[in-house]
Design brief:
Length: 397
């Protein structure tokens, strides 16, 4: 055991001297992630405000004498009406972006409305243009007109409006704010957590395997009294620790913007702080340990196999997709943790983290997930030791 600790200390010292490792393990989660998070939020707010305030040129062709729909359109914010235009010019204007939308009201429209039939109108727009803002504003005006016509018809026939609403539905959401917020954050937290565990472990793994090959220090280590098992375990401990540190710091980096963004309501901030409790922290750290060990074993095995630092990076690149896809599946609606999903690596982490953050986790699923992760971590360690013991792996040329 003392030999493993000595190797661990030696490798940890080497890793902490590497700038790339420190960047991905500390700098990126602490500084870059909050900047990306804040920047993305501010940009989204800016774009949303810009699209809301943008003046849209909307053409209207009205072949009737009724001007009420026109008046409702003028009441919409950011609408500039274009009139005295034919249908061909309207369609051409939308295609070449000089118009953002159009409304055509046929000459039979008023006759249909007055005879209690359905009046037909045509709405022209581009679905790719400003998230269909023109369509929304036209529909808002038509909705106002529709309510007015329905109200007049009901009054004409002395019909009580309540007859059209036979049900008085009162909905009561039994979810607490903590559960709602936990489910929402539950999709983001494990995604970022696992990605940063992987990134934090990747560069130390490359440096302690392929990097030592390039520097020629691996042969020196192999000639020491330490066994290959002790060397492998010592390196695994360092790489796993780097991944865990990166994962923990990433959570801090994600949550820190809450204190710097004024637009986030205090109620949301309070709810998030309630979610971040000792039980949640201990549970997440417990899940991180086998994940970090599994990633470390796989990354270190690839690093042992690679001839150079560059080759190791190329071989590890595709692993990002393998990691991202299962985590993306957990973001889909209707996917819940059960006795089957609790045994599937990464998917179980994403689903269980949702339950932990929402405060609705069942202990049996936590145990199943933990044992599943420990099982795969043990396989990873066994494979790493086996791979490192192969001479044609270590001295591959």
């Amino acid at each position: 055991m003392s030999t493993i600790i000595a190797i661990f200390r030696k490798e940890l010292t080497d890793v902490l001297r590497d700038r790339r490792t420190l960047f991905f393990m500390i700098v990126m989660p602490v500084i870059v992630m909050p900047l990306i998070f804040i920047g993305a939020l501010k940009f989204q707010q800016y774009q949303s405000k810009k699209s809301e305030e943008k003046i849209l040129n909307i053409a209207i062709i009205n072949e009737t004498s009724d001007t009420q729909i026109r008046e409702y359109l003028l009441e919409q914010k950011g609408v500039e009406l274009v009139e005295n235009i034919n249908l061909d010019s309207l369609e051409l204007g939308i295609k070449n972006d000089s118009l953002q939308g159009g409304l055509y009201i046929g000459k039979n429209f008023l006759n249909d409305i007055s005879s209690n039939a359905m009046g037909k109108v045509a709405v022209y727009y581009k679905s790719s243009d400003l998230m269909s803002k023109a369509k929304n504003r036209i529909n808002n005006a038509l909705e106002s007109y529709k309510k007015k016509v329905v109200s007049e018809r009901l009054s004409r026939f002395n019909v009580d409006k309540a007859l059209l609403e036979p049900l008085d539905i009162v909905t009561k959401d039994m979810s607490t704010k903590k559960e709602t917020m936990g489910k929402a954050l539950g999709g983001l937290v494990p995604y970022m957590l696992v990605i940063f565990i992987f990134l934090g472990a990747m560069y130390p793994a490359i440096d302690l395997g392929a990097g030592e090959k390039e520097r020629g220090s691996l042969e020196t280590l192999l000639s020491s009294p330490a066994t290959k098992f002790e060397i492998t375990v010592g390196k695994l401990m360092v790489v796993s620790l780097a991944g865990m540190v990166s994962g923990l710091i990433s959570v801090v980096g994600i949550s820190s913007p809450l204190y710097f963004i004024d637009s986030i309501p205090d109620q949301i901030k309070t709810t998030v702080l309630e979610i971040i409790n000792p039980f949640m922290i201990i549970s997440v750290i417990t899940l991180m340990i086998p994940i970090a060990i599994f990633f470390a074993s796989m990354l270190l095995s690839i690093s042992f196999y690679a001839r150079s630092f560059k080759e190791a990076q190329s071989l590890m690149g595709p692993l990002n997709i393998i990691i991202i896809v299962p985590l993306m599946l957990t973001l889909g609606p209707g996917i819940e943790i059960d006795h089957i999903t609790a045994l599937i690596p990464l998917i179980n982490v994403g689903l269980l983290t949702k339950e932990i953050l929402a405060g609705s986790m069942e202990p049996v699923f936590f145990v199943e997930t933990l044992f599943s992760l420990l099982f795969f971590a043990a396989i990873g360690i066994r494979f790493s030791v086996y791979w490192f013991n192969k001479e044609n792996t270590i001295f591959r040329v």
